[in-house]
Write a structure and sequence with these properties.
heterodimer, A: 615 residues, alpha/beta, Pyruvate-ferredoxin Oxidoreductase, domain 3, Rossmann fold, 4 domains, 6-stranded mixed beta sheet, 23 strands, 19% strand, B: alpha/beta, 3-stranded antiparallel beta sheet, 12 helices, globular
Chain lengths: 615, 351
């Protein structure tokens, strides 16, 4: 087999760092990604981490793409192999012609390497040990030293890294200078001993613009601040804990009264998910904007209360950062696997509003909007994030807000309205949209109070177990769900360059991979119209889109094509017309995967029928 | 009996409180519980306590879980908002409601199944957070709505109506509440209104988590010989440590007590609790002694009642969270939304 030529690529490659969890590599790796961004080249980093604090393998993958592709690409062009535990697998995963950077302090047998890749050794441990005596310093600075070596090998501007270090350690001069020193230790070694740059390299570009680099969980938490959330109750669960942490951090900076220093928010870490959603529902009942952040197992535990929110019509916002589950392990991997369990959460006939953000910018907007929707529709609203969006930094458009915007508190009957003689029936549909008025507790001394129950009540909230009253209420709840269709974010359609009979439906974190796959499919001669769903219930444009095409692919990150099932069920679509494309191994879906799955399927359609060949 | 409409007329000379309200203004719908149910007596005591304190009924939020006891908030304070939530989850719903509006009075009504079994965790955590509330457990040791199963407060060795002996040991919610840091702990008996009414008054005036365990016999399933929650049993084994008078506002203490038998406790809002001690050695400020006292008497088969512990200077969850004085549900865009200028700065820091 001829040795492949070393991969040569400018501003378009994938570097993966294989580290040991808890070794302090995360900040050096993030510095690597940020320095490339500062050179004007888009990157998309992804953490692949274990359910562990210290000792188990962890990876950090950075896709560099001047073209701006932010989905996972698949394949590794350069491996920075810093973890002996995973060495064999890591080395095996490098693309032919790729590069391996390793710590060459201790000699390793030739059998541990490959002939078809470029092996680059830097004696990181030796350099570190000769410079530092403190064990913790040795560990931390080793990471910065390999970053320095990479800057020479990949032609990253060291000034940019120095500036980032300067920003990070502003006011901590000692840390600043020691980090810069470590950076140059690695860089100087590479420049003096290695061929720099290698075939993969960076070049300044102007492709980042005014975009920002933020994790979806942090953006969603900020959306909650802007959307007026005052009560947050949550229970720790990966990958949603960082959302509650971010909300706490944002509130500390943005939500204290400047004079009294008092908090304009209340955050409670509940004893479990049941208490968390209970607190949210109690606060929502009493007129505050409240939310919880959780993941799939939390949704399972909250089922009874979610039903109460639906039947008693109490606003609540649930941010579900989806992951595989249950138990420990796969839960630190991404999936879109709670679609059905969220859409139909709880006992009895229930349906819930789901929002599907594609990136942090949309997570911010939809998080804020969720509180308006919850108040308007008086029900639970789910913000369906996932680990891929939530726990990774993602390049996205700047966050936007309109200062003229006012919160939509929905149909609230005030003391004045009651005094004016307005008829108040808590479950009375006054204008056909299925949404009744509510009063906040404590509104009026003699009017407007009611007893909140689940289902057994009439239009005026009086206790009844009569069948017709129950049905009347259930039908109104359906009307309310119809109303929701026009209030939630609409799907976004993008048509192929040429007319086509085929379409694709996708949502959430699949978006960047899908967008990239479209280009790949075009180069294979396949045209696809695209519809990105942004919410459930489905807008009327969804059935129209399906009707306009012979068949439609539904791309999602779960085993059972849950969104497809939801579409089939809710829109009475013939299942044959929706072709499932599913990716569910816990890694983020890639353009390569989508393009292959759809491309192969379309290629098969183009095969000349057997009868024609015979005749 | 929901078809029975409660008549609205009342005697023209019914006594009025400081707000000009009569008892009738504190009533709710007609009870659908069994005739003679201890819970109805507690309902009466709540009405009496709110009347005496001259509380505006609509400033109370009544929250309950599921069960016979949890139905009762419909039977008092008809002008208050009520919430019959889900089984065992009253504490979390109440906590959320309290966070949303610190200015209302929160009355949590629960039962022994609701609080000692399915909701034991929520009971515990709402107490340890110090939610400003009056948490009343209407404790009959039995599941009424599902027809007579033992609850977790049923004493070991007590007999069910069907003749089954309970072999599990009982949870004493008062003992647990003391251990969890409740700043007001009391026990009473539904059949003893003179003791119960002032306890409820004092609990409402208390700033912090007030817990009241009210033993409330179930006439349908737990009022037979062999039960330790029957009217007869509780009357015979009731060991009151004190009797309470609640003095609100500026009125001086005029009750004439024998020297050395009265302990006066001044609560946060100026309310004075005058405790006529039945047991001269009992100190309501000593949490540890209270726990030991309870255990000692429980071992003798005695049910200790009265105000068992109070920390008059307790702080509540809002103090712990340092929240603003204005109820969170009254804040709007102006107070809550940092606006575009702040967002621009945030964007700039993310590049």
């Amino acid at each position: 087999m001829p040795t492949p030529r070393p991969i040569s690529s400018v501003n378009d490659f994938v570097v993966r760092f294989a580290n040991v969890n808890g070794s302090g590599s995360a900040s050096a790796n993030e510095l690597f990604a940020r320095s490339i961004l500062r050179m004007g080249v888009p990157v998309s980093p992804r953490n692949i981490f274990p359910s562990n604090i210290q000792g188990l393998p962890t990876w950090y993958e950075v896709r560099v793409s001047e073209a701006g592709h932010l989905g996972a690409r698949g394949g590794i062009d350069m491996m920075v192999a810093m973890n002996p535990q995973t060495w064999d697998k890591d080395v095996a995963s490098i693309e032919p012609g790729g590069y391996l950077l390793y710590d060459s302090t201790k000699p390793m047998p030739k059998s541990k390497f490959r002939d078809d890749i470029t092996v680059i050794g830097v004696p990181l441990t030796a350099i570190t040990n000769s410079t530092y005596t403190d064990p913790r310093q040795r560990q931390l600075f080793k990471n910065i030293i390999y970053l320095g070596a990479l800057s020479a090998l990949l032609d990253i501007d060291p000034k940019v890294i120095e500036q980032l270090i300067g920003e990070q350690y502003k006011g901590k001069e000692k840390l600043l200078s020691s980090n810069v020193h470590a950076l140059h230790l690695g860089r100087d070694y590479a420049l003096q001993n290695l061929k720099c740059p290698i075939g993969l390299r960076l070049q300044k570009a102007d492709k980042v613009g005014d975009r920002i680099f933020i994790e979806g969980n942090s953006a969603a938490a900020l959306g909650a601040v802007y959307g007026g959330a005052t009560v947050c109750a949550w229970y720790p669960i990966t990958p949603s804990s960082s959302l509650a942490d971010a909300f706490t951090g944002h509130c500390k900076r943005l939500r204290h009264d400047p004079e009294t220093k008092k908090a304009k928010y209340a955050i409670v870490q509940g004893e479990d998910e049941l208490a968390s959603i209970g607190i949210v529902i109690g606060a929502g009942w009493n007129g505050a904007r409240a939310f919880t952040a959780t993941s799939g197992p939390g949704i399972s535990l909250m089922q009874e209360f979610i039903g109460l929110s639906y039947f008693a019509e109490i606003p609540a916002v649930i941010m579900d950062v989806q992951r595989a589950g249950p138990s420990t392990g796969m839960p630190t991997r991404t999936q879109q696997c709670d679609i059905i369990s969220a859409a139909y959460a709880s006992h009895g006939d229930t349906k819930h509003v789901l929002l599907f953000p594609e990136d942090p910018a949309e997570a911010f907007e939809m998080a804020a909007q969720a509180f308006d929707l919850a108040d308007r529709l008086q029900t639970a609203i789910f913000l369906m994030l996932d680990l891929d969006i939530g726990m990774n930094h993602r390049l996205c458009r700047p966050l936007k807000w309109d200062d003229a915007k006012q919160y939509d508190r929905g149909k609230i009957m005030t003391a004045e309205m009651l005094d004016d003689g307005r008829d108040f029936g808590r479950y009375l549909d006054v204008d056909g949209d299925g949404i009744p008025f509510r009063t906040y507790p404590g509104t009026h001394p003699t009017k407007g109070s009611f007893f909140t129950r689940g289902t057994s009540r009439d239009r005026y909230a009086r206790y009844t177990e009569e069948g017709p009253a129950y049905q009347d209420n259930m039908q109104r709840l359906l009307r309310k769900f119809e109303t929701a269709k026009d209030l939630v974010p609409r799907p976004l359609q993008a048509n192929a360059a040429k007319p086509t009979k085929y379409g694709v439906i996708y949502f959430g974190s699949t978006a960047p991979a899908m967008d990239e796959a479209i280009g790949m499919l075009e180069s294979r001669g396949h045209q696809l119209d695209r519809l990105r769903l942004r919410a459930f219930p489905f807008h009327s444009s969804v059935p129209s889109f399906i009707a306009e095409h012979d068949f439609v692919y539904v791309v999602e990150q779960n085993r059972d094509s849950q969104l497809r099932s939801l579409i089939v069920n809710e829109l009475s679509i013939d299942p044959v017309r929706l072709v499932p494309i599913v990716h569910y191994d816990g890694t983020p879906i890639t353009a390569r995967f989508i393009a292959k799955a759809i491309g192969d399927h379309l290629d098969q359609l183009k095969v000349t029928p057997l009868r024609k060949v015979v005749s | 009996m929901t078809y029975v409409v409660k008549p609205k007329f009342h005697h023209p000379e019914l006594p009025k409180n400081d707000l000009g309200y009569t008892h009738r203004d504190y009533e709710g719908k007609i009870s659908t519980l069994c005739a003679g149910c201890g819970h109805d007596s507690i309902t009466g005591a709540i009405i009496e306590a709110c009347f005496k304190l001259a509380i505006e009924p609509h400033r109370v939020a009544k929250i309950s879980g599921i069960g016979c006891s949890s139905k009762t908030p419909d039977y008092f304070l008809g002008n208050s908002h009520g919430f019959n939530s889900v089984h065992g989850r009253m504490p979390s719903v109440l906590t959320g409601a309290n966070l949303a509006n610190r200015d209302l009075i929160y009355l949590g009504v629960s039962g022994d199944g609701d609080s000692a079994s399915i909701g034991f965790g929520q009971f515990a955590h709402s107490i340890r957070r110090g939610v400003n509330m009056t948490y009343i457990v209407e404790n009959n040791g039995v599941y009424g709505l599902t027809k007579g199963q033992f609850s977790a407060t049923a004493d070991r060795g007590s007999k069910s109506k069907r003749g089954v002996t309970n072999t599990d040991s009982a949870i004493d919610l008062v003992g647990i509440a003391l251990q969890l840091g409740a700043s007001f702990v009391a026990r009473s008996f539904s059949g003893d209104k003179t003791q119960l009414v002032p306890i409820i008054e004092a609990a409402i005036k208390h700033n912090g988590a007030s817990f009241i365990d009210v033993i409330s016999p179930c006439v349908a399933f737990n009022n037979h010989t062999g039960s330790t929650k029957s009217f007869d049993y509780v009357r015979e084994h009731n060991e009151a440590v004190n009797r309470l008078d609640v003095i609100t506002g500026r009125a001086p203490i005029t009750v004439d007590y024998a020297p050395g038998t009265v302990q006066v406790v001044e609560q946060h809002d100026g309310t004075k609790l005058a405790l006529r001690k039945v047991d001269a050695d009992y100190d309501v400020h000593d949490r540890l002694a209270a726990m030991a006292f309870l255990q000692k008497h429980a071992a003798k088969g005695q049910v200790v009642t009265g105000l068992l512990y109070v920390d008059a200077d307790a702080e509540d969850l809002h103090a712990h969270l340092n929240t603003v004085a204005a109820p969170l549900n009254t804040l709007g865009e102006k107070e809550l939304c940092p606006g575009t200028a702040a967002l621009e700065k945030i964007n700039a820091a993310l590049r």
